[in-house]
Amino acid sequence: MPILPKQRDIFPESLLDEPPAADGRGWIAFYTISRREKDLMRKLEAATVPFYSPLVKRRLRSPGGRTRISYVPLFPGYVFSLVDDEQRRTALATNTVARWLPIGDAAAFVGDLRNIKRLIDTEQPLTPEARLEAGQPVRVRSGPLRGIEGTVVKRRSGQRLVVAVHFLNQGASIELEDIDLERL
Predict the structure, then answer these.
(1) 140 occurs within a structural domain
(2) Percentage of residues of the chain with pLDDT beyond 90
(3) Same domain for 82 and 138?
(4) Binning pLDDT at 50, 70 and 90, where does residue 2 land?
(5) Are 163 and 116 contacting, i.e. CB atoms less than 8 angstroms apart?
(6) Is the pLDDT of residue 183 over 90?
(7) Nearest to 145, CA basis, from 109, 182, 180
């Protein structure tokens, strides 16, 4: 049973499908005050400001042995938004933002976010990766993740596909078999 139901992590649903903004809007990353990502997302949705902050399921065991499910940010502290100057000021007025960072290569960034969203939508267990390591670039050639590109990182438990969000120097990983991957 979830502690709280999963809240919306993308607004509007078609945000990542939109063509690049030619109307003065740009992608920025809001870095929030500690543990205020969901609060900022609720306030942005109420103000109809577009945002995306991927949430992933985390299972916890209580001391009594019950399993609890919570939804936590994949990138703690960050909420990504496609905003104009007025919407940026609205977000800053929420008292949940510590600072904001402009995103230079918006097309590559949105592509990375689409890949992260596809990984989350498969509902397979994800592992947040704090820092990306150098490795072999690969593409998934079969299954629901077909076409996603990433980097292979050796771990004790085998191979992991790391799909990178290069702007943050962070990513997420998922366990795949060697046979599911092809070199780029």
Answers:
(1) yes
(2) 49
(3) no
(4) low
(5) yes
(6) no
(7) 180
Helix locations, 2-92, DSSP H = 37-46, 85-92
Asked if residue 43 lies in contact with residue 90, where contact means CB atoms within 8 angstroms, the answer is no
Q: How many Å separate Cα 2 from the centre of its chain?
A: 21
Q: Two tokens at 46?
A: 């109420």
b/e map 31-67, b = 16+ CB within 10 Å: ebeeebbbebbebbbeeebbbbbbbbeeeeeeeeeee
Identify whether 59 is part of a domain.
yes
Single out the residue in 44, 71, 103 at which a domain terminates.
103
Which pair of tokens denotes residue 5?
């139901």
- Specify burial of residue 19 (Cβ count, 10 A radius: 0-12, 13-18, 19+): exposed
Quick check: 145 and 174 in contact, CB under 8 A? yes
Q: Provide the H-helix boundaries in the chain.
A: 37-46, 85-92, 106-121
Closest listed residue to residue 51, CA positions, set 23, 18, 22, 24: 18
pLDDT of residue 121: 92
